[in-house]
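Before relying on records like the one below, remember that each one covers exactly one chain. Contacts with other chains, cofactors or solvent are not represented anywhere in the record.
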Amino acid sequence: MKRRQFLQGTAAAALFTPTLAREALAQSSSPTVLKMAPQANLTSLDPIWTTATVTNNHAYYVYDTLYGGDLDLKPQPQMAEGHEISADGKVWKIKLREGLAFHDGQPVRPADCIESLKRWGQRDPYGQLLLKAVEAWGAPDERTLEIKLTRPFPMMLDCLAKADNAPFIMPERLAKTDATKQVTEMVGSGPYKFVASEYVSGSRVVYEKNEAYKPRTEPPSRNAGGKIAHFKRIEWPILPDPATAASALTKGEIDWWERPLADLQPLLAKSPDITREVIDKNGRGSIMRLNHLQPPFNNPKVRAAVRMAVNQEDYMRASQGDDTTVWQVCRNLWWRGTPYYTGELEDLMPQSLEKAKAALKESGYNGEKVVIINPTDFPDIGPLGDVTYELLKSLGMNVEFAASDWGTVIQRRNSREPVEKGGWSIFHTTGAAVGWGNPALSNLVRGPGEKGWFGWWTNAKAEELAEEWLYAPDQAKQKQIAVTLGRLALEECATIPLGQFVIKTAYRKNLTGMLPGSAPYPWGLKRV
């Protein structure tokens, strides 16, 4: 509570201070420039290398996809003109739209799409299922991509239209980069170009309109339809201090603050010039991710003790404030409002410190150090680590708190080394509920080990269930499989859920065309 009271006080004071002198915040009446303060600093630019949400959002400016998911999550052609499927379902031919070109002027070819999908498929859980079914890739002509399968892949379009951590298309020369290494150039075919010469991590990101981009004619819907860029230039001033961001938005020095701190919402609500809106109705989940490769969390009994102790209300109040209309508990790895949520798994998450202490005593835990890597510049995530630190100390665990900026966290979580050599034990993050909505999409319930997401949970049964879900004969069977998988993943502590919340984004009222969805899409937006 002291932290939130402090922020409220500093924000209130900031609203009455002189105009900020930083050049990035200079007020502009230009109808062709949009300034948006993103949720976090953009330190990693490659959306295949990292699952960081801010990088995924950045990628939507620069790249495009073969298919997109509309607001009803139905796949729609995007870069694709259309497709044909063989009678036996084993051959897909996807034809590209005419005139597609990358930012360097080179045409988009089937080879670019093939290499992009192959690279994405090495890192993404849905992509891994697809690659497992691919027999061969081909390009029968300069506009057609051919995918030959060993068996029909019934959810091909859903896979290619994946919205969060999407299969973005980049040039073949860049897509051939090892998937464990970051690409060095931002060259896509999307509606905006990344301006590398003006990028300063920790200060600002700049995009310019891609004048050669040919949007589709359909109305925009989520990440599908016509991506019309009305602004010639979009700037992301990096404002990690919430009081500074609140002041900048109120004064018109920025147009849009993607994720206002929950406790500053009442201050923003007082301004007649600001609109606050929930654009992602399904909300986001907060999670704790444990490192399964290293002690002590390579011991499932130690993991279970932590799971039993978690009280989600503590996490939600710390990160989202006391307004219970914007958050709720969800003791399930299928989030509320998604198809496979079937209720609270209270037996696995009893929220009992006494039971957790008893379980830890029986686990064989021997005082091994637990290192929590935690961001100081991400208000939705930082408090989660604070709560976990106090919780583990109350359990009697040997805990170290490694605070840093978010960019350092997402770099360090790649390490598989012991904590003594720069590794980690726990990190926290958030993600779109619909982006974790089924066994093919969700990293949270999958168990491919070192080929999987940070934490590297290994469970052959989980992988079998995911594949069974994909090829299940009907929705009833899919639900049965998904529910079984969700319980297995929570029982084994693949991921520990910490609650679910919605965000009221805030923007100046002279902006129109704000699109609903799980990312801050730039297309369709204009100033009136």
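The CA atoms of residues 208 and 233 lie 4 Å apart.
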